[in-house]
User: Fold this.
Amino acid sequence: MLHSRRGLIGAGAALTLAGTAGAKAKAAAPEAKFVFTLPVTTVPVVDTDEVFPVRRIYCIGRNYPEHSREMGSDPTREPPFFFQKPADAVEFVQPGTVGDHAYPSLTHNYHHEIELVAFLKSGGANIPIDQALSHVYGYTVGLDMTRRDLQREMGNEKKPWEIGKSFDHAAPMGPIHRADKIGHPTKGAISLAINGKVRQQADLSDMIWSVAEQISKLSEAFELKAGDMVYSGTPANVGPVVKGDVLVGKIDGFPDLSIRIV
Ligand code: MN
Assistant:
Protein backbone atom coordinates (compact mmCIF):
# COMPACT_ATOMS: atom_id res chain seq x y z
CA MET A 1 0.00 0.00 0.00
CA LEU A 2 1.11 3.53 -0.65
CA HIS A 3 0.58 6.05 2.03
CA SER A 4 0.39 9.74 1.52
CA ARG A 5 2.67 10.93 4.28
CA ARG A 6 2.09 14.60 4.13
CA GLY A 7 1.42 16.98 6.92
CA LEU A 8 0.07 20.46 6.55
CA ILE A 9 2.09 23.54 7.17
CA GLY A 10 0.71 25.19 10.26
CA ALA A 11 1.14 28.87 10.92
CA GLY A 12 4.28 28.35 12.99
CA ALA A 13 5.95 25.66 10.92
CA ALA A 14 5.42 27.49 7.67
CA LEU A 15 7.47 30.48 8.71
CA THR A 16 10.63 28.48 9.13
CA LEU A 17 10.02 26.70 5.84
CA ALA A 18 9.27 29.85 3.85
CA GLY A 19 12.93 30.60 3.25
CA THR A 20 12.37 32.79 0.23
CA ALA A 21 10.04 35.11 2.09
CA GLY A 22 13.00 36.50 4.03
CA ALA A 23 13.09 39.23 6.63
CA LYS A 24 10.01 41.00 5.37
CA ALA A 25 7.78 38.02 6.02
CA LYS A 26 9.44 37.50 9.38
CA ALA A 27 8.43 40.96 10.49
CA ALA A 28 4.89 40.36 9.35
CA ALA A 29 4.79 36.85 10.75
CA PRO A 30 2.35 37.13 13.65
CA GLU A 31 -0.44 38.43 11.42
CA ALA A 32 0.41 36.48 8.26
CA LYS A 33 -2.46 34.46 6.89
CA PHE A 34 -1.84 31.90 4.22
CA VAL A 35 -4.01 31.98 1.13
CA PHE A 36 -4.13 28.17 1.36
CA THR A 37 -2.40 25.40 3.25
CA LEU A 38 0.51 23.66 1.53
CA PRO A 39 1.27 19.97 2.14
CA VAL A 40 4.74 19.14 3.47
CA THR A 41 6.20 15.93 2.06
CA THR A 42 7.61 13.65 4.73
CA VAL A 43 9.28 10.25 4.95
CA PRO A 44 8.69 8.07 8.04
CA VAL A 45 11.63 7.13 10.26
CA VAL A 46 11.60 3.40 10.91
CA ASP A 47 10.61 2.18 14.40
CA THR A 48 9.56 5.66 15.52
CA ASP A 49 6.51 7.89 15.19
CA GLU A 50 8.74 10.58 13.68
CA VAL A 51 8.75 11.75 10.08
CA PHE A 52 11.50 13.49 8.10
CA PRO A 53 10.33 16.65 6.31
CA VAL A 54 11.65 16.81 2.76
CA ARG A 55 13.24 19.97 1.38
CA ARG A 56 14.99 18.94 -1.83
CA ILE A 57 15.72 15.72 -3.70
CA TYR A 58 19.15 15.68 -5.35
CA CYS A 59 20.24 12.82 -7.59
CA ILE A 60 23.69 12.01 -8.96
CA GLY A 61 24.01 10.73 -12.53
CA ARG A 62 26.15 7.84 -13.79
CA ASN A 63 27.77 6.84 -10.51
CA TYR A 64 28.47 3.13 -11.14
CA PRO A 65 31.08 2.32 -13.81
CA GLU A 66 29.03 -0.18 -15.83
CA HIS A 67 25.97 2.09 -15.78
CA SER A 68 28.12 5.03 -16.84
CA ARG A 69 29.35 3.00 -19.82
CA GLU A 70 25.84 1.89 -20.79
CA MET A 71 24.79 5.56 -20.80
CA GLY A 72 27.68 6.44 -23.11
CA SER A 73 30.15 7.97 -20.63
CA ASP A 74 33.72 7.29 -19.59
CA PRO A 75 33.52 6.47 -15.87
CA THR A 76 37.17 7.27 -15.28
CA ARG A 77 37.10 10.87 -16.40
CA GLU A 78 33.67 12.36 -15.86
CA PRO A 79 33.11 14.59 -12.81
CA PRO A 80 29.85 13.96 -10.91
CA PHE A 81 26.75 15.76 -12.13
CA PHE A 82 23.43 16.22 -10.38
CA PHE A 83 19.78 16.90 -11.07
CA GLN A 84 16.75 17.34 -8.84
CA LYS A 85 13.32 15.88 -8.47
CA PRO A 86 10.55 17.88 -6.82
CA ALA A 87 10.19 17.14 -3.10
CA ASP A 88 6.62 15.96 -3.54
CA ALA A 89 7.72 13.27 -5.99
CA VAL A 90 8.24 11.06 -2.92
CA GLU A 91 6.05 7.97 -2.92
CA PHE A 92 6.42 6.22 0.41
CA VAL A 93 6.08 2.43 0.40
CA GLN A 94 5.66 0.59 3.69
CA PRO A 95 8.00 -2.43 3.97
CA GLY A 96 6.10 -5.71 3.67
CA THR A 97 3.62 -4.19 1.24
CA VAL A 98 3.65 -3.79 -2.54
CA GLY A 99 3.00 -0.18 -3.47
CA ASP A 100 0.81 0.59 -6.45
CA HIS A 101 2.91 2.80 -8.72
CA ALA A 102 1.11 4.52 -11.58
CA TYR A 103 2.71 4.26 -15.02
CA PRO A 104 3.28 7.94 -15.81
CA SER A 105 2.00 9.97 -18.74
CA LEU A 106 3.83 10.66 -22.03
CA THR A 107 6.40 7.85 -21.88
CA HIS A 108 6.67 4.56 -23.75
CA ASN A 109 10.00 3.58 -22.17
CA TYR A 110 9.68 3.81 -18.40
CA HIS A 111 12.84 2.72 -16.56
CA HIS A 112 13.78 1.50 -13.09
CA GLU A 113 16.90 2.73 -11.26
CA ILE A 114 17.53 1.20 -7.82
CA GLU A 115 19.54 3.48 -5.50
CA LEU A 116 20.73 4.06 -1.95
CA VAL A 117 19.27 7.34 -0.69
CA ALA A 118 20.92 9.51 1.98
CA PHE A 119 18.96 12.03 4.09
CA LEU A 120 20.57 15.18 5.54
CA LYS A 121 19.85 16.53 9.03
CA SER A 122 22.08 19.57 8.45
CA GLY A 123 24.13 21.03 5.65
CA GLY A 124 26.20 23.95 4.51
CA ALA A 125 28.28 25.13 1.59
CA ASN A 126 31.67 23.75 0.59
CA ILE A 127 31.48 20.83 3.02
CA PRO A 128 34.81 18.95 3.25
CA ILE A 129 34.62 15.26 2.32
CA ASP A 130 35.79 14.18 5.79
CA GLN A 131 32.90 16.08 7.43
CA ALA A 132 30.20 15.20 4.91
CA LEU A 133 28.79 12.13 6.64
CA SER A 134 28.27 14.05 9.89
CA HIS A 135 25.37 15.75 8.09
CA VAL A 136 23.65 12.46 7.19
CA TYR A 137 20.59 11.58 9.27
CA GLY A 138 19.90 8.21 7.68
CA TYR A 139 19.40 6.09 4.59
CA THR A 140 16.79 4.15 2.68
CA VAL A 141 16.23 2.15 -0.50
CA GLY A 142 14.80 4.25 -3.32
CA LEU A 143 13.89 4.09 -6.98
CA ASP A 144 14.83 6.90 -9.36
CA MET A 145 12.04 6.21 -11.85
CA THR A 146 12.80 7.64 -15.27
CA ARG A 147 10.89 8.41 -18.46
CA ARG A 148 13.93 7.33 -20.49
CA ASP A 149 12.55 8.15 -23.92
CA LEU A 150 11.79 11.71 -22.86
CA GLN A 151 15.15 12.05 -21.10
CA ARG A 152 17.00 10.88 -24.22
CA GLU A 153 14.98 12.95 -26.69
CA MET A 154 15.59 16.10 -24.69
CA GLY A 155 19.26 15.28 -24.22
CA ASN A 156 19.72 14.66 -27.93
CA GLU A 157 18.24 18.09 -28.61
CA LYS A 158 20.46 19.69 -25.94
CA LYS A 159 17.39 20.65 -23.95
CA PRO A 160 17.02 20.11 -20.17
CA TRP A 161 15.89 16.54 -19.48
CA GLU A 162 13.76 17.57 -16.50
CA ILE A 163 10.67 15.93 -17.97
CA GLY A 164 12.42 12.56 -17.93
CA LYS A 165 13.28 12.66 -14.24
CA SER A 166 11.13 15.19 -12.41
CA PHE A 167 7.50 14.16 -12.39
CA ASP A 168 4.80 13.06 -9.98
CA HIS A 169 5.59 9.90 -7.97
CA ALA A 170 9.06 9.62 -9.54
CA ALA A 171 10.69 8.80 -6.19
CA PRO A 172 9.34 5.64 -4.53
CA MET A 173 11.17 4.83 -1.29
CA GLY A 174 11.02 3.02 2.02
CA PRO A 175 11.32 4.41 5.56
CA ILE A 176 14.51 6.05 6.85
CA HIS A 177 17.00 4.02 8.87
CA ARG A 178 18.96 6.32 11.15
CA ALA A 179 22.72 6.49 10.66
CA ASP A 180 23.25 6.52 14.43
CA LYS A 181 21.70 3.03 14.44
CA ILE A 182 22.98 1.45 11.21
CA GLY A 183 26.10 3.48 10.44
CA HIS A 184 26.99 4.68 6.94
CA PRO A 185 26.68 1.89 4.36
CA THR A 186 29.66 1.91 1.99
CA LYS A 187 29.49 -1.72 0.86
CA GLY A 188 26.87 -4.41 0.46
CA ALA A 189 24.74 -5.83 -2.33
CA ILE A 190 22.25 -3.64 -4.17
CA SER A 191 19.83 -5.22 -6.63
CA LEU A 192 16.55 -4.90 -8.42
CA ALA A 193 14.35 -7.75 -9.63
CA ILE A 194 11.33 -7.59 -11.92
CA ASN A 195 8.76 -10.38 -11.54
CA GLY A 196 11.38 -12.41 -9.68
CA LYS A 197 14.16 -11.99 -12.25
CA VAL A 198 17.22 -9.99 -11.16
CA ARG A 199 17.94 -7.11 -13.55
CA GLN A 200 20.32 -4.83 -11.69
CA GLN A 201 22.99 -6.14 -9.35
CA ALA A 202 26.10 -4.49 -7.92
CA ASP A 203 27.79 -3.52 -4.67
CA LEU A 204 27.59 -0.14 -2.96
CA SER A 205 31.40 -0.13 -2.99
CA ASP A 206 31.25 0.07 -6.81
CA MET A 207 30.12 3.72 -6.62
CA ILE A 208 32.48 6.03 -8.52
CA TRP A 209 31.79 8.89 -6.08
CA SER A 210 31.05 7.92 -2.46
CA VAL A 211 28.09 9.45 -0.62
CA ALA A 212 30.56 11.65 1.29
CA GLU A 213 32.14 12.83 -1.96
CA GLN A 214 28.70 13.46 -3.46
CA ILE A 215 27.63 15.63 -0.52
CA SER A 216 30.90 17.55 -0.64
CA LYS A 217 30.65 18.12 -4.39
CA LEU A 218 26.95 19.04 -4.25
CA SER A 219 27.66 21.60 -1.54
CA GLU A 220 29.96 23.47 -3.93
CA ALA A 221 26.97 24.16 -6.16
CA PHE A 222 24.15 24.42 -3.60
CA GLU A 223 23.99 25.28 0.08
CA LEU A 224 22.70 22.02 1.49
CA LYS A 225 20.20 22.05 4.34
CA ALA A 226 18.35 19.77 6.70
CA GLY A 227 15.60 18.00 4.78
CA ASP A 228 17.66 17.46 1.65
CA MET A 229 18.17 13.96 0.31
CA VAL A 230 20.65 12.54 -2.16
CA TYR A 231 19.98 9.64 -4.53
CA SER A 232 23.43 8.06 -4.87
CA GLY A 233 23.20 6.56 -8.34
CA THR A 234 22.16 3.28 -9.92
CA PRO A 235 24.02 0.16 -11.09
CA ALA A 236 24.06 -0.97 -14.71
CA ASN A 237 21.29 -2.65 -16.65
CA VAL A 238 18.55 -0.11 -16.21
CA GLY A 239 15.57 -1.06 -18.31
CA PRO A 240 11.87 -0.76 -19.01
CA VAL A 241 8.90 -1.77 -16.91
CA VAL A 242 5.31 -2.24 -18.02
CA LYS A 243 1.96 -2.32 -16.26
CA GLY A 244 1.62 -5.40 -14.09
CA ASP A 245 5.35 -5.71 -13.35
CA VAL A 246 6.32 -6.17 -9.70
CA LEU A 247 9.67 -4.60 -8.78
CA VAL A 248 11.63 -5.62 -5.69
CA GLY A 249 14.59 -3.47 -4.71
CA LYS A 250 17.14 -4.76 -2.21
CA ILE A 251 20.09 -3.28 -0.37
CA ASP A 252 21.91 -5.30 2.30
CA GLY A 253 20.66 -4.39 5.75
CA PHE A 254 17.42 -2.74 4.60
CA PRO A 255 13.90 -4.12 4.14
CA ASP A 256 12.88 -4.71 0.52
CA LEU A 257 11.23 -1.92 -1.46
CA SER A 258 8.45 -3.34 -3.60
CA ILE A 259 6.11 -1.69 -6.10
CA ARG A 260 3.67 -2.87 -8.75
CA ILE A 261 3.32 -0.86 -11.95
CA VAL A 262 -0.35 -0.06 -12.47
MN1 MN B 1 19.47 7.65 -10.96
